[in-house]
Design a protein that fits this description.
This protein is of the alpha/beta class. The protein contains 8 helices and 15 strands.
């Protein structure tokens, strides 16, 4: 890990700093959604020019792969071959079963997803997540949708490479350099998307075990994002680097973002088409709409964020 390594003591000090910056009071359950104002959403909507839309989600996969050993199960319940021929009308139907959290499918993490030192976000007791689901901080807190100004920071483009290699870190300096190169500053209420090129590498070289090797943000970069008061953070990877940069903490970005800051994380998006469009239009910002499923006790949800230009 070299110069990127953080001791557990350094990490805990960082945790306290981002927690203090992000506090909304002892009773808060909204977390980073507090950072989006109606005025900021209206301003983001007013910047829509062409009506062009881009999905930021990857297609759901149902085939076993190195990074997806327990993939979604898509089953047909009724197909054209099931029609009995006695009626002019019939319906094709199907069902889907999937793990919400994994290393392949695009998803959003609820604020109940990360337990650290026996607590959820804002000190909520971990035992509020039961065998029946989450009774506090479920994904349904974002069930009305998350909408605002989306901003893409394309780190491979900044570095002049097609992707970051597994184990590489995106630092605060990288984020500052990317926003300077794009002339677009990260502001309060933004939905920030950090591209590391995970999907481009996967398409080119094939799947690998992303659980043990992936590019992501360095934990110290979260201090900048806490100060900027963003509303959501997404990546085409897991947001966390593997191996971890922190001694004794495997997912430090998840701990800082979800548990300390109350920040909604979107993992394993597909940002390649977005990056191409942003480069072609010389834009880094857009209206973005994120619509989690209404899972009343869910720890997260499959997600299909939409960028609107």
């Amino acid at each position: 890990m070299g110069d990127f390594a953080l001791s557990e003591a350094d990490f805990r000090a960082l945790y306290e700093r981002v927690r203090r910056v992000s506090t909304w009071g002892s009773e808060d359950r909204q977390g980073s959604l507090n950072n989006i104002s109606a005025a900021e959403l209206v301003a983001a909507a007013s910047d829509v020019r062409s009506g062009h839309t881009i999905s930021l989600a990857a297609p759901i996969e149902s085939q076993v792969a190195l990074d997806n050993p327990d993939p979604a199960v898509h089953q047909m319940c009724r197909s054209a071959g099931d029609a009995d021929g006695t009626s002019r009308l019939s319906f094709a139907t199907d069902r889907l079963a999937m793990n919400i959290h994994g290393n392949a499918d695009s998803h959003i993490d609820a604020l109940c997803h990360v337990i650290f030192d026996g607590k959820l976000y804002n000190g909520v007791a971990a035992d509020t997540v039961t065998a029946a689901g989450a009774t506090e901080l479920s994904i349904d807190l974002a069930g009305q949708g998350i909408a605002g100004r989306g901003v893409l920071l394309d780190i491979p483009r900044l570095r002049g490479t097609p992707w970051l290699e597994p184990g590489d870190h995106v630092t605060a300096d990288d984020l500052l350099a990317a926003e300077a190169a794009q002339f677009d500053r990260i502001e309060q209420g933004d939905l920030l998307f950090v591209r590391v090129g995970h999907r481009a590498r996967r398409r080119s070289l094939g799947p690998w075990d992303a659980a043990v090797a992936r590019a992501g943000l360095h934990p110290a970069a979260l201090e900048l994002l806490a100060e900027r008061r963003i509303a959501a953070l997404g990546s085409d990877g897991n947001n966390d680097t593997a191996p971890s940069a922190v001694e004794g903490v495997d997912f430090p970005v998840h701990v800082l973002a979800v548990n300390a800051m109350g920040l909604y994380l979107l993992d394993y998006l597909d940002l390649d088409a977005l990056a191409e469009s942003c480069a072609a239009m010389h834009r880094a910002s857009f209206l973005c709409v994120v619509a989690p499923l209404r899972l009343l006790a869910g720890t997260g949800s499959p997600v299909n964020p939409i960028a609107i230009f």
